Each structure stands twice: as structure tokens, then as C-alpha cells.
Amino acid sequence: MSISSSLNAGVMGLNSNASRLSTISDNIANSSTYGYKRSVADFSSMVINGQASAYSAGGVTVNTFKDIQQTGSLINTGNSTDIAVGGRGLLPVTDGAGVNSLASERELMLLPTGSFYADESGNLRTQSGMFLLGWAVDSDGGIGTVSRNSGANLQPVNISASQYVASPTSRIDLGINLPADATLAGASGQPYDLPIEYFDNIGRAQTLSLSFAPDVPTDGATNRWTVQVYDSATDGTDPIAELVMTFTDDVDEGGRIATVAPATGTVYDEDTGIMTLSLPHGDVEVLVGEPGGTTGVTQLSAPFSPTNVTKDGAPIGDLQSVEIDEKGFLQAVYNSGYRRALYQIPVGDVPNMNGLRAKDGQAFSVSAESGNLYLWDAATGPVGDVAGYSLMESTTDIAAELTDLIETQRAYSSNAKIVQTVDEMLQETTNLKR
């Protein structure tokens, strides 16, 4: 019995070390594979209960798994769509069959890193056929309500529809100083004109012209101005909005707006200091300033100074590149200097990372052992941030693998010696004569 158990233990040792040799071979072969997760062989002893006077060798069993929770070092590359997760978590991807499939029929996989490029359809994919997935960003820069426990709202990341874009102007902030001396008795009364370029919804440049006319008294100072707004997109001869602004010369709030009186048809909110203009392409908010506020238009004893006039929007632009930030937002960069977010790339996580099922191309899929998937925003919760221009190196340590290789070779030889010894002992038994 004990001899037979020794033979079985030796054979099990040979098989277990052969499995370990396979994991070492895989690790060494993929030492330069980006995103490769090291395979591990975990040995466990087996015990057979027997009598105290006779010991039976139970042998050894081996469990192999991918050490997915271990992360490799990130290296910088020159490609903006080389993407890696800096820490715990994986990127959502699918295969070629899932690109045109319904979300419920698509195979959702996870990838630690990938060198993505735009294919002939504009989809971002790797050379191994993994297509990047993300949540589409709406015009307000949000993703709305999405499912974080499944890929139901994920879409293949496609940049072909973003080759050209126009960004209409929706906000103008006025940072202007009006000369206080212009409202003194005897001043010329000459208005000050300020043209502001803006962009409509098809990328054309238009001009808003603001005319600041001082109210000149016969004596003293009025501190009052009439502001008229003209739009080149209309006939440009009649004002589209009009305000009467009065400034205070109090000790504490000198030069600030005292009152704003909008003309008929002009919309002004004194709580926010915003005048809303109805332009042909849509409403545009113009920050004039609220009474007593420190922003917007001021009246001080200084020259007319439109030094801080800002606006959003951009003319029609051609897509130059796409980049991803640490929050996982994939942004399109246009030659006009305009940037806008196209997709948000989430970071997937499961309770047991090592329970994920390994697939080809360094991809993984959810299994019963891994637990349920949750899609986090990058750099929130337990997951790391998303790094562009980066790839994750293999977690294989060549020096450690070569050391394990020597140990495995010695262990295999030792187990083979057990089998040989048991064989010789059995041979001696069969040679016994009565």
C-alpha cells in the first residue's frame, strides 16, 4: 500500500511540475507582450487518512490561474490612442462580431491595455481584433443615466462621424471698463463701439456690435449709459437689444453697476447679470454684470478698455487627433483649437479579479468565480485612472521565471527519481523466492 502510494505521489509530482513548466513557458514567451498577466501554478498537498502504523502518500495537486490583479509598469508611447489603466481595473472591449450586434447580444470583454487605431469604419480597435467600448457623450458633456452593471449602454468608439464639427457660440462674458469722464458735463457724447465675433450653428463667423453711448448732462455727471446691440446676421441696422446702465459713485462700491433697465423685448436677469439675446441660431447669454457685482461692465476714471471679453464656440474645424484624459474622456481635437468629448471610457472591476476567464489577445471575460462586473468612472472607487500615450508592460519577471524554471527542473527530476526507486523496489519484490 505504502509503495503504491509512493508511486502515485511521484507520478502526481511529475504531472504537477509539468503544469508548472507550462506556466513558466507561457510567461517567458509573453515577457514582451503588452498587457500580459503572469500565469501562476499553485501547489497543494493531498492527505490520505490511514493507520498510524502505515503512512500513505497523498501526493500533490496543482491549480493554475492568471494573476490578473497584478499590474505591470506603464511605458510612454507616441500614440495618443495607446491606452492603459494605471492601477486596478480593465477597459471594456468586444470582438469584431460584437461591433454591429445589439448590446444584449454582444460579448463584453475586458482588456488591461491596448494599442488602438481607427479602422476603415472609424472604430477604434487593436491589431488583435478588440474594439474599444464607451459611453457616448451628449452635447452638454454628460452621459446621462447608464447601466454600470452591464454593457447595455456601451457603444463601439467611433470617430468617423467627428471629422468636421461646428461649435456655436452660447455664452459671451463682457469684461469692459467705461470711462467715467464720458458722462461729465461738457463731454463729447461720442459712443464707444465694440465688435464681438461669434459663430453660428453651421460654423460661420458673425458679429455682434455693442454701442455704449454716454448720457451727457448740462451739469455734473449722470453715470448713465445706453447700450445697444446689433447683429450682422440680421439686417444690422436696428438694434436687437437695448439696456440703460447706471453706475454708482459711492465710497464702497464706486464704479459698479447700480441699476440696469432693459428696453422692451430685451431679457435681463439682475440676479445673474445675464442678458439673453435671441439670435438666428439660438439664444446667447451675455454676462453684463449684476447690480453691485464685481464682474462684467464697470465705470472707472480710466480709458475705454474691453480687455477681458471672452466667448465660447469655434468655427468649422477638421479633426486633427483624439486624446484621452485621466478621467477616461476621449476628446476630439480640431485644427481650429476646439476640443470636445466624444466618449467616456469606463473602467471595469470585479470582486475577484483572478476569477476572470482568460481569452485570446490579453482579454478577459466575467465568470461565476469573478463575481459581477461594475463599470466605474476612471480614478474613482477602487479603480485607477486611464492613461493615454501609454501601454502596460507584461507582468512577467524574467529573472524570477528562470529561477522557477531551475526549481521546476530539479523537482521534476526528484519526482522521476521516486518513480525509479519504487520501480526498483517492486522489482526486488517480484524477485523474491519462496
Describe the structure concisely for a colleague.
By secondary structure, this protein is α+β, with helices and mostly antiparallel strands. It has helices at residues 2-29, 96-99, 398-430; strands at residues 39-45, 60-66, 74-76, 82-86, 91-94, 109-111, 113-115, 117-118, 124-125, 131-136, 155-156, 164-167, 171-173, 176-179, 192-199, 205-214, 224-231, 241-247, 257-262, 267-269, 274-279, 282-287, 297-300, 310-311, 314-324, 329-334, 339-344, 347-349, 357-358, 364-365, 374-376, 385-387, 390-392.
What does this structure look like?
This protein has 3 helices and 33 strands. A hairpin with a 5-residue loop joins strand 8 (117-118) and strand 9. It has 434 residues and is an alpha+beta fold. The two termini are 21 Å apart. The mean pLDDT is 92. The strands form 10 sheets. Strands 5, 6, 10, 11, 12, 25, 26 and 27 form an 8-stranded antiparallel sheet that branches. Strands 20-21-22-13-24 form a 5-stranded mixed sheet, with no helix packed on it. It has a 5-stranded antiparallel sheet with strand order 15-16-17-18-19, with no helix packed on it. Keywords: Bacterial flagellum, Cell projection, Cilium, Flagellum. It is found in: Bacterial flagellum basal body. Residues 192-313 form the Flagellar hook protein FlgE D2 domain.
Sequence-ordered SSE layout with sheet pairings:
Blueprint: H1 2-29, E1 39-45, E2 60-66, E3 74-76, E4 82-86, E5 91-94, H2 96-99, E6 109-111, E7 113-115, E8 117-118, E9 124-125, E10 131-136, E11 155-156, E12 164-167, E13 171-173, E14 176-179, E15 192-199, E16 205-214, E17 224-231, E18 241-247, E19 257-262, E20 267-269, E21 274-279, E22 282-287, E23 297-300, E24 310-311, E25 314-324, E26 329-334, E27 339-344, E28 347-349, E29 357-358, E30 364-365, E31 374-376, E32 385-387, E33 390-392, H3 398-430
Parallel strand pairs: 13-22, 14-23
Antiparallel strand pairs: 1-2, 3-33, 4-7, 4-32, 5-6, 5-10, 8-9, 10-11, 10-27, 12-25, 13-24, 15-16, 16-17, 17-18, 18-19, 20-21, 21-22, 25-26, 26-27, 28-31, 29-30
